[in-house]
Amino acid sequence: MEDVLRPIVVIGGSIVVTLILVRVADRTLRRIDTAHPETPLWGLLRRCRVPLQVVLCAALLRGSYDETGLKSVENHAAGIGRALTLVLIAATAWLVVRASAAIVESSYSRYAAGARDAARVRRVRTQVTLIQRVVTAVVIVVAVSSMLLTFPEMQAVGTSMLASAGVLGIVAGVAAQSTLGNLFAGLQIAFGDMVRIGDTVVVDGEWGTVEEITLTFLTVRTWDERRITMPVSYFTSQPFENWSRGGAQMTGTVFFHLDHSAPVEKMRQRLHEILQQCDEWDGRSWSLVVTDTTPSTIVVRALVTTRDADTLWTVRCQVRERMIEWIQAEHSYALPRITTAAPEGREGRQG
To answer: How far apart are CA 89 and CA 240, in angstroms?
Structure first.
């Protein structure tokens, strides 16, 4: 009877203790979160329930599995102990990654809630995102190294690898030159404030918004929902336009090609009326001037300002559409015309 009860008590007891401890921790975090709604940290830490359960259960079983009294366990004690150790290391790494992500996300949320500078918020968001990726990478490398070192064979290999680390480092550096270049470029972007998540950029003639920045690549979401993925080293070695740097306010132009008889002063008044009815116009500035002439037309430029790049596109489209509609209805003679017949008397003069 004891041979049956002991493994049940050992294994079942480890599971029950794990569930009780995790339940207590979760309820404690829930109460703290309710008492301190100003910070989301405690609520985010509740995401660590599953890795915490695995860590506690693996630790309890690792310390008590040899007390089960089962012959199969005694015969394979070394293998079971190593397997539980590997699970414990992996679960601990999982828990550390989840906890660090909760801390970083909570810090960013509190900063974003109190900050008024949108550009600085995007900068901090980019930095914390890359910091979290670095922390995750370091934790994974340490966890994998620790798991490998649990095998005696790997310890001997590790000693020989350390002895030749200098040569291997040089070879790896040459072989991974491009990867390392992107890695350092990612860190330079994060802390050099060159480009941030949420910035509006123009790269290779494509206009879009920076959606994701990692240590090796950057993703730009274009206006038509396409994603352009580029190595981060591009942004440290090639020129690009960042419309969000130095403030999100933008100035845009709309060009009209009209007949020489176009009523420019009336167009100027109509543009002001259109902008006053447009909610996206920020009211900073506007103008309408003739910028060029050709033998058959004049070029009229309307200038408008908006609070950001997205609204600039909307304002330009509205000005273009409503101005053309007004010209067609009130001053159709101002539309450009192509003369297809010779002037009267020209043929006679030529004869």
So the answer is: 44
CA 83/CA 90 separation, integer angstroms? 11
Distance of CA 151 to the CA centre of its chain: 39
Contact between 309 and 247 under an 8 Å Cβ cutoff? The reply is: no
pLDDT tens for each residue of 103-144: 888 877 777 776 666 666 777 777 777 778 778 888 888 888
d(C-alpha 154, C-alpha 148), whole Å: 6
The answer to whether residues 321 and 302 touch, using CB atoms and an 8 Å cutoff, is no
Regions of the chain with pLDDT less than 50: 1-2, 161-162, 165, 167-168, 170-177, 346-351
165-175 helix and 177-192 helix, angle to the nearest 10 degrees: 80
**pLDDT score, position 171:** 45
pTM: 0.50
Task: Give the neighbor-by-neighbor strand order of the sheet with 200-203.
Answer: 227-231, 217-222, 206-213, 200-203, 241-242
Distance of CA 100 to the CA centre of its chain: 18
Per the DSSP assignment, residues forming a β-bridge with 257 are: 299
Residue 260 CA to its chain's centroid (Å): 50
Structure token digits, residue 226: 């396409």
Distance (Å, whole) CA 289 – CA 297:
14
